[in-house]
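Record 1 of the preview.
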Amino acid sequence: MDETRQRKISDARTLRAVAHPVRIAILEQVTINGAMTATQLGDRLDESPANCSWHLRKLAEYGFVEEAPGGVGRQRPWQATHLGMSWGDEEGGPLETDFQLAGRALTEVLVTREVDRLLESQLRISDEPAEWRSAATSTQSMMWLTADELEVANAVVREALMKHFDRHQDPALRPPGSRLCAFMSWGVPTYGIADPTPSPE
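->
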């Protein structure tokens, strides 16, 4: 993945601005399909062109999209300014910071979207060819790790998920028969299941 094309968000206002299901859906469409007009987005997302236009202007206000060449009025195409985004793990004190709360809200929007995608895939799996039914799967696990081991595990998973990210930018890199596939992962401590392992004497 070209890290220079990924946006690093560091303020709560920007996080809150993008933490909306329609805006995330718009960003997904223009990132994957290239420049699109509000009318085209409305058709894809089952939203009115006026609603998509309003959300596009808000996304543009915070630097997530920009006007692409060509078109006028509602037929103006819009394009993504970055490929993906990340936001920092700002450390707070006893009370959560506004940035942390905004980041959690955005995470909830993204996770909900991916869970909906997983459920849709399960509903439609019987319509898929045998090779796609076999390839599509989900994995869940818990294991005892140190903080360093957890960090390494997350880095390995991220590297695997980003391995073919350049195919978004260059369709020529996509092998015949490839399809857009969705992945989501997280490695986090658990709470309320088991007591932490006592430190050795």
